[in-house]
Amino acid sequence: MFGIGTDDFAISLASIFLRLTGIWTSKNRLEQCSRTVATCFTIVMTSLCILMECLDVIRGDLDAAGLLYALITILCTTNDLFKVCVLVAYKKDFLDLLSHLRQHFLESQYDTNEKTILDACKRTCAIFIGSFTFFTHVTLIGYMLVPLFLSIGKNESDRLFPYALPESPLYTTPYYEIAYFVQAIITYEIGLCHFCVDNILCIMNLHVATQFRILQYRLSNLKSDNVDDDPVTRVPSAAENSYMTFKRCVQQHKMLIAYCNKLEEVFSLIVFSQIIIFSVLICVNGLQILVVKTYLTRYTALLLLVTFFVQLLMFTYSCDGLIQESLKVAPAVYSSPWAYLPMTIYGKMLRKDVVLVIMRSRVPCCLTAKGFFPISLETYTKVWTTAMSYFTLLRQTMDDFK
After folding, report:
1. pLDDT for 203-239, tens place per residue?
2. What is the DSSP string of 185-209?
3. What is the pLDDT of residues 302-351, one digit of tens each?
4. Global confidence as pTM
5. How far apart are CA 268 and CA 343, in angstroms?
6. C-alpha to C-alpha distances, 201 to 13, 191, 275, 373, nearest whole angstrom
7. For FRET with 245, which of 153, 186, 321, 329 sits at 20 to 30 Å CA-CA?
8. What Cα–Cα distance (Å) separates residue 272 from each residue in 44, 195, 242, 269, 365?
9. Which distant-in-sequence residues (6+ apart) come within 8 Å of 333 by Cβ?
10. Each residue's pLDDT tens digit, 232-264
11. What is the percent of the chain where pLDDT is above 90?
12. What one-character-per-residue DSSP string does 19-51 give?
């Protein structure tokens, strides 16, 4: 399966972090055991973070900034834990998707034009995956180091943790440093869950959309060397050759539709949770930027908002590409040279099949939020509009209570 040595930057980067969460392929029993341990570690760490933040809220001694911080952490971590649990539940199907991506998308034989299309897809994946991973890591560094910087020069009773703890000996040296290191590990593990699932989903979506583009190219170039626009030079074998090529394209189309259905089966719950929680997270994060008092905390919250922006754009753009490219199969097959083929048995069969492909292509392949609505770039604008509406309402409510 994909290794670090592959020439695809996006897949290499995504595979590294998916291995750390335990959701990846294994070649032998030792790797399988290590993947299981990594998955259990991920679930335990994220659950522990949720527990600490919930206890912090229950104690009831948080100000507005602390409450918003705890709420963002709980929402993000719960969503990340949910995504990992869904992939664990559908692990076999997920690994089948990865195997199919490698065998039929990356290792297939392509001509020069098709390789150009595939290379463009790899560059797009690299931009999205690299940007999202970078901003997430910068945000994680902020969450791990800002409490440490704010604790410099303070008494032991005033020290801060990434996740608040009740009064205990943990605030004294060397227990403080040990507990802080453990919480930093928890923070990074949560960050891995936050972006690794979205990374691989974006890669799969963009590669499927690219396969639809390659299919369009193949359908538009069915004409063999024996077929041209001159009725005098049409030969019966041209229709048979074109029909055989068209048949392979239809099989590829069926395979891509089946792959999209499998994507929907594995990721629809994850997509649903993402869309539901994004509006709330963006709204609460905006409020946190307004109410925090320290500049370091404000900059960290602003970085998190930028991460949400990149994540949502990457997520909806890849899903929108799936819709648009699957719809373009219809005009591509209609523009193929079927009208110039002789009316042999293969010519007639090809003309009938062209109609069927056009009819099927009018129903786009897409990812949905558990069947409620398809995800596209329109979803991106709706999420931000909804988040701004919530933000305005909550800010006005907070002003009224002052």
Report:
1. 999 999 999 999 999 888 875 444 444 443 455 566 7
2. HHHHHHHHHHHHHHHHHHHHHHHHH
3. 888 888 888 888 889 999 999 999 999 888 888 877 777 777 787 788 78
4. 0.86
5. 45
6. 13, 16, 14, 18
7. 321
8. 24, 16, 43, 5, 17
9. 219, 249, 354, 357, 358, 361
10. 345 556 677 777 888 888 899 999 999 999 999
11. 13
12. HHHT-S--SSHHHHHHHHHHHHHHHHHHHHHHH
For residue 110, give both structure tokens. 């392509």
Ramachandran category for residue 371: left, alpha or beta (phi over 0 → left; psi -120 to 50 → alpha): left
153: left (phi over 0), alpha (psi -120 to 50) or beta: left
3-state secondary structure of 242: helix
Taking the C-alpha atoms of residue 36 and residue 190, their distance in angstroms, rounded to an integer, is 17
Chain length of the chain:
402
**CA geometry: angle 172, 66, 176, nearest 5 deg:** 15
Q: Are 296 and 146 in contact (CB under 8 A)?
A: yes
Q: Is 213 helix (H, G, I), strand (E, B) or coil?
A: helix
371-372-375-377 Cα dihedral, nearest 10 degrees? 160
Whose structure tokens read 């690794």? 196
Residue showing tokens 């919480």: 183
Angstrom distances, CA of residue 144 to CA of 54, 238, 302: 19, 66, 15
Nearest to 180 by CA among 154, 136, 149: 149
Instruction: State the Cα–Cα distance between residues 2 and 24, nearest whole angstrom.
Output: 10
First to last CA, the chain: 58
Structure tokens belonging to residue 290: 């307004």
**CA gap 81, 193 in Å, rounded:** 7
Instruction: Give buried/exposed letters for 79-89 (b at 16+ CB in 10 A, else e).
Output: bbbbbbbbbbe
Q: Which of 132, 75, 74, 65 is nearest to 295 (CA)?
A: 65
Is there a contact between 104 and 256 (Cβ–Cβ < 8 Å)? no
Q: In this structure, are residues 9 and 122 in contact, taking their beta carbons and an 8 Å threshold?
A: yes
